UniProtKB/TrEMBL annotation:
UniProt key word Transmembrane helix: yes
Location(s) in or outside the cell: Cell membrane; Endoplasmic reticulum membrane
Protein name per Swiss-Prot or TrEMBL: Trace amine-associated receptor 1
Coiled-coil intervals, chain numbering: none
Length: 332
């Protein structure tokens, strides 16, 4: 087996892949990183530039896009080098910093999904009081919580090395090596981290969107009954389509979230209890599946809206540099 540092004792092993697989990995990681970077940058520019988009709701989307943009800018490139080379050549300091930023942004992205879900629930379930509940102070508080808690949690896990608590000797003997930057959690921290970063937020999101679906379905039925009572000749197809669209949107939001993150966090919580026998390459691949969630977020929360498509056209064609372009009407 090749080594990351041939001249050093205790060097990590380096797996040499076939050329074809190497090229496919490079293309996939480059595309994921570029799409994440560009997609979220377009969201940031759109909401930041056009005054019509300066709403409390869009501030949540803007903060989520910023989180995913930073993940594509600072985390994914170094993770790609590590995945391609099976080695970390940037030193222990950057390893800890990269791990801390990775945990912070990935967790913050998930927390933002909870905030967006809560905002949508209030808009659908309590439309009369929505504008009073979700003003800029409320959104600012939600954004602050979505950033601050992941920062503190990631710092404590990484720099205070709480993720090694209970299994430090095993890590030093069997995992740690020169040229490595491994994702490692001992028994207790693996459970706490998985619950904090995925399972609890995931259950909250599922619960919120289940509530949204039930309310939307009841509203559709109520509208249909009112129309029948008034004996108006309106087909029920429109009501059915609205309910169907709500169902599809909920399925996409929850489905993408679960598909991207479930595998990694199942592996993360199980690995300590099966003797850390999960292959590092599998863990690395599951981490990238989690990253894909940040790649897809712009499509789910912005690309589905007509105002974003109009904003992108203005940005791409250069109209954004014209006078008063920030006052363009993107939706009526």
């Amino acid at each position: 087996m090749d080594l990351c540092y041939e001249a050093l004792n205790g060097s990590c092993g380096k797996y040499v892949r076939p050329y074809g697989i190497h090229v496919l990995m490079l293309i996939a990681m480059m595309l994921t990183t570029i799409v994440t970077f560009i997609g979220n940058l377009l969201v940031i520019i759109s909401i930041g530039h056009f005054k019509q988009l300066h709403t409390p709701t869009n501030q949540l989307i803007l903060s989520l896009a910023l989180c995913d943009f930073l993940l594509g800018l600072f985390v994914m490139p170094l993770s790609a080098v590590r995945s391609m080379q099976d080695c970390w050549y940037f030193g222990d300091f950057l390893c800890k910093l990269h791990t801390c930023i990775d945990m912070t942004l990935s967790t913050a992205s998930i927390f933002h999904l909870v905030s967006v879900s809560a905002e949508r629930c209030c808009a659908v379930c309590s439309p009369l009081t929505y504008h009073y509940r979700f003003g800029f102070p409320t959104v600012l508080l939600m954004i602050s919580i979505s950033w601050l808690i992941p920062v503190v949690f990631s710092y404590m896990s990484t720099y205070l090395e709480l993720h090694l608590h209970g299994d430090r000797d095993f890590y030093e003997t069997h995992v740690h090596c020169v040229g490595g930057c491994h994702v490692f959690f001992s028994h207790g921290p693996a459970v706490v981290t998985s619950l904090f970063s995925f399972y609890v937020p995931g259950l909250i999101i599922i619960g919120i969107y289940s509530r949204i679906y039930m309310v939307a379905r009841n509203q559709a039925r109520s509208i249909s009954l009112q129309l029948n009572q008034l004996r108006r000749v309106y087909p029920s197809e429109g009501t059915h389509c609205r309910a169907q669209k709500a169902t599809i949107t909920i399925a996409i939001v929850v489905g993408v979230f679960l598909v991207c993150w479930t595998s990694f966090f199942l592996c993360n919580i199980m690995n300590p209890f099966i003797g850390y026998t999960t292959p590092p390459m599998l863990i690395d691949a599951l981490v990238w599946f989690g990253y894909v969630n940040s790649t897809l977020n712009p499509f789910i929360y912005a690309f589905m809206h007509s105002w974003f498509r109009k904003a992108v056209r203005i940005i791409v064609t250069g109209e954004i540099f014209k006078n008063n372009s920030s006052r363009k009407q993107l939706y009526s």
